[in-house]
Amino acid sequence: MGQITVEKNIAGIEGLCLITPAVHGDSRGYFMETYNENDMKEAGIDVVFVQDNQSMSTKGVLRGLHFQKKFPQTKLVRAIKGSVFDVAVDLREGSKTFGKWYGCILSEENKKQFLIPKGFAHGFLVLTDTAEFCYKCDDFYHANDEGGLAWNDPDIGIEWPEIEGEYDGTPSAAGYSLKDGTKLNLSDKDQKWSGIKDYSVK
């Protein structure tokens, strides 16, 4: 027990948690528990996860901002290789912090995990040559249930690190790059989402 430290309600956004595991290391390497149900419950996080996902992305890839419409998921995310800037945006109806965002660095070095409750949009930017990203979900994948928001919506105002470029009124990646010249890389789908003013789960 007691193998995690949990920061709750980060940036005043209820439910967002940043989790730091205890890492036991010596000259041979390290060991840590990546998930312990008892520790989570002791920290007040009572979530039953049913699916684990893993992805690999290259530098400059930005995935998001995604949410689920009818089958919202709580997600526990972390980077097991490389480094990403991970973002959550509050989309909960009636929330005092609706539209507010929070971002944090998740990396293989800091080993932090980010708990994102149901009702948030989520996305991340890859800051290293490659990044491998893992996340636990408390509901299964449902096809055709994904919604999204424009990653650069000025009404949300996410301050993505390393990105340079001029906003042209669209979520297109054209004209954007990282400071080292790496072009921003988004899927076709992620370059077509609307802003939060048009947000709807219907």
Describe the structure in your own words.
The chain is mainly β and 202 residues long. The protein is 3% helix and 39% strand. It is built from one helix and 15 strands; from the N terminus they run ββββαβββββββββββ. The strands form four sheets. Strands 1-2-10-7-12-5 form a six-stranded antiparallel beta sheet, with no helix packed on it. A hairpin with a 2-residue loop joins β3 (24-26) and β4 (29-31). The radius of gyration is 17 Å and the shape is globular.
- Which whole number gives the mean pLDDT? 95
Q: Tell me the radius of gyration.
A: 17 Å
N-to-C CA distance: 42 Å
What level of helicity do the residues show?
under 10%
Task: Write a brief structural summary.
The chain is mainly beta and 202 residues long.
Jot down its keywords.
single chain; 5-stranded antiparallel beta sheet
What is the secondary structure topology, with strand pairs?
Layout: E1 4-8, E2 17-21, E3 24-26, E4 29-31, H1 37-42, E5 51-58, E6 62-68, E7 75-81, E8 83-90, E9 101-107, E10 113-116, E11 120-126, E12 130-137, E13 146-148, E14 163-164, E15 177-178
